[in-house]
């Protein structure tokens, strides 16, 4: 069982999923930086690139969005996905054309948003595919019998008077126990939403946002709340009322669990969630046993390194390693969710001699990852003893959302030593002395650099002054970073 806490302010909504008193999952949405996934726009084709089989589409965003031939809707249910891909993109779209498109991936880093012309609108139990007529059922709905029953019920509910199909549907996992009335409500809501999108699409200019996905607080009721949710607590009266109204209309089951939090302490202080967020931004994650995990995020992949640290508790060294790896498996799976790390992830568990230990650690790791809502694939241990895995990337990671590269080291994670900067300064003076002929050179630098030039490097400074025949004076600038300096010609 779990609880959901919603901390709402006009500028930011934060949602934490609490299981057994610990943060299991974390979602943050800023009003100014809301994700675009699910949004439907009227776009204009800016450029078609036959070599890449893709097109750039202008949506009125900061960067042009990207449409690949595989994401083009292939002319109704006759054209299979692969057949559509075989028709070159330059024969399907042209520059200046107006297209209705949906964002399937947020802009990340320097990449623009990724688009599809296959529109899908998510409801609580169903996803509506207005341009298709097929009926799909979530893989997570178990028995074949139940799937068949749902298929027959949906065929009845979606049939029109004259028997012509009007759009396709995919049943989401929470449609498993839905009544016919609930499914019918969802169908009506989705068709109404699509009619509104189409009507706007006919009348609005390119660059218009036709449909926006629900905000984070509403998505909690639609997607995050399940039967195992005990309570959903929110700390804003205004949002509580708005969510209650939305929930009663669309998700009565979840709306019944809504509670207004009126406590003295901020809602996120109840389970030390602020400290948890701070820990989720650190490189090092300490384990209860004394071991620790180091997580490094790079452009291409994320590396996770497990260390025993101060843990020497088990009977022998093999057991110590095995226990640390087992404990870290759960910690890593949780950190991937909290930090929302996506793409390729390499986990370097401590080397284990025994095969059964390796198998047990891998099984535990897969078990912990199975609780992740995001798609995860894990391969076994490689020849080098590393576990390679991927986690689907849909939005920016927590660190990219909350942090920026350090202005001092520019994201390198280290700065030059004061001695290195001293030698840079001495070389720069020599270079300038060959080009210019001032009366004096003045070095402006940080306190540590000036101190070193006056003390340990004073001999080299005096030697250089004699060599170029000019005096060199020093001046400290407190606002300078360790690597910053200026040579002023007096």
Task: Please provide a written account of the structure.
With 490 residues, the protein is of the alpha+beta class. The chain folds into 4 domains: 2-34 and 215-273, eRF1 domain 2 (Nucleotidyltransferase, domain 5, 2-Layer Sandwich), CATH 3.30.420.60; 119-209, Ribosomal Protein S5, domain 2 (2-Layer Sandwich); 283-397, no CATH class; 418-489, 3-Layer(aba) Sandwich (Hypothetical Protein Ychn, Chain: A), CATH 3.40.1260. 32% of the residues lie in helices and 26% in strands. The chain is built from 13 helices and 24 strands. It has helices at 81-86, 144-158, 180-203, 216-224, 237-250, 252-255, 273-279, 317-339, 355-369, 398-402, 418-435, 447-454, 458-468, and strands spanning 2-9, 12-19, 22-30, 40-49, 54-58, 65-68, 98-105, 114-116, 121-122, 126-129, 135-137, 168-171, 209-211, 229-234, 258-260, 284-286, 292-297, 301-307, 343-348, 376-381, 387-391, 441-445, 472-476, 485-489. A 6-stranded mixed beta sheet has the order 16-17-18-19-21-20, with helices on one face. It has a 5-stranded mixed beta sheet with strand order 3-2-1-14-15. A 5-stranded mixed β-barrel has the order 4-5-6-8-7. A hairpin with a 4-residue loop joins strand 4 and strand 5 (54-58). Helix 2 packs across helix 3, helix 4 packs across helix 5 (237-250) and helix 8 runs parallel beside helix 9. The longest helix is centred in the middle third of the chain and has 24 residues, at 180-203. Mean pLDDT is 88; it is low at 75-81.
């Amino acid at each position: 069982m779990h609880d959901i806490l919603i901390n709402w302010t006009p500028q930011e909504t934060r949602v934490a999923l609490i299981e057994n008193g610990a943060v299991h999952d974390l979602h943050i949405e800023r009003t100014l930086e809301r994700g675009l996934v699910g949004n439907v726009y009227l776009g204009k084709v800016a450029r078609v690139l036959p070599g890449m089989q893709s097109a750039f589409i202008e949506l009125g965003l900061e960067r042009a969005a990207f449409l690949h031939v595989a994401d083009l809707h292939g002319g109704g249910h006759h054209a299979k996905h692969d057949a559509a891909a075989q028709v070159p993109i330059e024969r399907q779209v042209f520059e200046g054309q107006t297209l209705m498109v949906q964002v399937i991936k947020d802009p990340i880093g320097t990449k623009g948003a990724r688009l599809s012309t296959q529109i899908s609108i998510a409801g609580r139990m169903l996803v509506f595919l207005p341009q298709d007529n097929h009926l799909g059922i979530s893989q997570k709905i178990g028995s074949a019998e139940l799937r068949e029953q749902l298929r027959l019920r949906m065929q009845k509910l979606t049939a029109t008077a004259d028997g012509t199909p009007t759009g396709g549907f995919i049943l989401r996992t929470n449609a498993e126990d839905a009544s016919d009335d609930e499914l019918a409500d969802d169908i009506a809501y989705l068709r109404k939403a699509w009619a509104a999108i189409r009507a706007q699409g006919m009348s609005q200019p390119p660059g218009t946002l036709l449909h926006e996905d629900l905000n984070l607080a509403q998505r909690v009721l639609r997607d995050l709340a399940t039967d195992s949710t005990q309570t959903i607590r929110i700390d804003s009266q205004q949002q509580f009322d708005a969510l209650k109204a939305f929930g009663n209309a669309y998700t009565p089951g979840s709306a019944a669990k809504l509670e207004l939090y009126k406590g003295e302490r901020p809602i996120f202080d109840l389970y030390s969630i602020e400290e948890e967020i701070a820990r989720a931004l650190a490189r090092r994650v300490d384990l209860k046993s004394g071991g620790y995990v180091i997580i490094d995020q790079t452009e291409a992949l994320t590396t996770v390194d497990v260390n025993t640290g101060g843990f020497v508790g088990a009977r022998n060294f093999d057991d110590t390693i095995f226990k640390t790896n087992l404990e870290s498996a759960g910690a890593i799976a949780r950190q991937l969710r909290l930090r929302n790390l996506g793409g390729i992830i390499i986990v370097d568990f401590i080397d284990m001699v025994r095969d059964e230990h390796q198998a047990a650690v891998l099984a535990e790791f897969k078990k912990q990852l199975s609780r992740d809502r995001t798609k995860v694939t894990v391969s076994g241990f490689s020849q080098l003893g590393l576990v390679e895995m991927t986690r689907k990337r849909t939005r920016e990671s927590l660190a990219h959302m909350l942090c920026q590269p350090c202005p001092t080291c520019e994201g390198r994670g280290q700065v030059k030593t004061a001695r290195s900067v001293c030698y840079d300064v001495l070389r720069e003076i020599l270079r300038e002395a060959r080009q210019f002929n001032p009366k004096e050179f003045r070095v402006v630098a940080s306190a540590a650099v000036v101190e070193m030039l006056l003390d340990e490097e004073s001999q080299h400074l005096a030697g250089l002054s004699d060599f170029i025949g000019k005096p060199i004076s020093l001046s400290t600038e407190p606002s300078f970073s360790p690597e910053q300096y200026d040579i002023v010609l007096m």
